[in-house]
Write a structure and sequence with these properties.
Length: 414
């Protein structure tokens, strides 16, 4: 393959493929490479929510306050194995700094801007790609175990209201109408109608990649090992000893992106934040919409492939073996939420979120070279922010003004 492409997108997750589709539609000759295949990373097995309401960054005082309780439970929502803790220290210090009031207000504003762009563009994008049938509009239910837990979340809902998020407090018959069969502890909920779901994250990501190829993009299963920028373009060295050339390279390699940016001289504090889930057979429960158990850090989701139960955050790097006791623990807890849930016959999965300490992604030109663009670090919201990210990258590539101010997402902010 000695053709020179306009764009080489490294990583075929939802971020890389949304960019690849968008640039192909803009008339660019696009090559997408991925060492594993399309949708094989975090994008293939996540919870499938396009969560426009999630304006509050994870780096917040409320997360800090919950952390000791979460960490105390060995199979709880947050885990940091001792062997990884010292390596994580600089990241944790940055996370703590991002929780301070001014920093938190700035990242809330930047996260909300990305989500508002996502809200404006996502349906149009998937519609144009012929993939609107993968979107579902049942909204989500944030569940609370009692009035006190519901009241304790009031500040978060005020913040969301201030950013234009619509929601409805529900209890009693209205709650039962939105979801029957809830456990008796779950008496209060917040219903968020403007919350898109995808039928299945693997299906929509793979279908988007196939659409990009149908529009003219080239896909190659290959792992990039090094980027060598030159004056007129960039050479991408591959693991098999060959290389490809493009006018511009876009690093969208999710949690693995830092290995490539480091070689260019950009040290970005990207951590792998591992999440777990179990997908039960479709008949496991008559689930009407996504249930969010915010206090316990997991969700229960109806997908075309079944009922998916999972979430949690384990900071254990990129290579450690998965600990599926975590997915089993969330499945056990979900029996309290849905006592009738049939928990047999599930398939466990672990995926690695690309997480930055201030909860914002990196989107923009690499400080080290104008021939390289970065688009990674979307943490818990990669599916949600994929279309917005693609719109920004498209504008930068075509020399246009990005649709929102991208200063907060710059690579050299750390
Ligand atoms: C349990 C869980 C639930 C989640 N739920 C949601 C949700 O409901 N909504 C939401 O918006 N987000 C959710 N997320 C987050 C979301 O999945 C991620 O933010 C998103 O998938 C990141 O997309 P990506 O394309 O950057 O990374 P990935 O999908 O991980 O893709 C990166 C790709 O790059 C490839 N790659 C890496 N290095 C190289 C290299 N050197 N050369 C070539 N290829 C390379 C990998 O093989 C991989 O395919 C969830 C995550 C988890 C773990």
């Amino acid at each position: 393959m000695d053709k020179t492409f306009d764009q080489c997108v490294i990583g075929a997750g939802i971020i890389g493929l949304a960019i690849a589709y968008s640039l192909t539609r803009a008339g660019q000759a696009v090559l997408v490479i991925d060492g594993e295949g399309m949708a094989e990373g975090a994008s293939g097995g996540n919870a499938g929510a396009i969560a426009f309401a999630d304006v509050e960054p994870l780096a917040s005082i409320s997360t800090l306050l919950k952390s000791p309780r979460w960490l105390a439970d060995p199979l709880g929502p947050l885990s940091l194995p001792l062997s990884h803790a010292s390596r994580m220290l600089p990241w944790m210090v940055r996370f703590a700094r991002a929780c301070l009031p001014d920093a938190h207000a700035a990242s809330t504003k930047a996260q909300a801007a990305l989500l508002m762009l996502a809200k404006a563009e996502t349906e149009v994008f998937f519609d144009q790609a012929g993939l609107a049938h993968h979107l579902r509009r049942e909204g989500a239910l944030y569940l609370y175990a009692g009035r006190r837990a519901f009241d304790a979340a009031a500040g978060l809902w005020r913040l969301r209201a201030a950013h234009g998020v619509a929601f409805e407090p529900v209890t009693g018959p209205r709650l039962a109408e939105l979801q029957s069969g809830l456990g008796s502890a779950y008496t209060h909920a917040m219903y968020v109608p403007d919350w898109l779901m995808v039928s299945d994250p693997y299906d929509i990501t793979k279908a988007l990649g196939d659409r990009a190829v149908a529009e003219g993009a080239t896909f190659r299963k290959a792992r990039a090992t090094r980027l060598v920028p030159q004056e007129a373009g960039v050479t991408i060295a591959l693991e098999d000893g060959t290389s490809v050339a493009a006018r511009q390279a876009i690093v969208a390699a999710g949690a693995w992106s830092a290995a490539l940016t480091r070689q260019l001289g950009d040290a970005i504090p990207l951590e792998g934040e591992r999440g777990y889930n179990t997908t039960l057979p479709p008949g496991a429960f008559d689930l009407r919409r996504q249930l969010v158990l915010a206090a316990d850090g997991y969700v229960i989701t109806p997908l075309a492939s079944g009922i998916r139960v999972g979430g949690a955050a384990e900071f254990a790097g990129l290579t450690r073996a998965a600990d599926f006791r975590r997915s089993a623990a969330m499945l056990r807890k979900s029996r309290r939420v849905l006592p009738g849930l049939a928990t047999e016959g599930g398939r466990a999965w672990m995926g690695i979120r690309p997480s930055l300490p201030d909860t914002l992604p990196v989107i923009g030109r690499a400080p080290a070279s104008s021939r390289v663009l970065y688009a990674f670090g979307h943490g818990h919201l990669g599916l949600t922010q994929s279309v917005a990210t693609a719109q920004i990258v498209r504008a930068l590539t075509l020399g246009r003004q990005p649709p929102i101010d991208i200063h907060p997402y710059r690579a050299d902010r750390f």
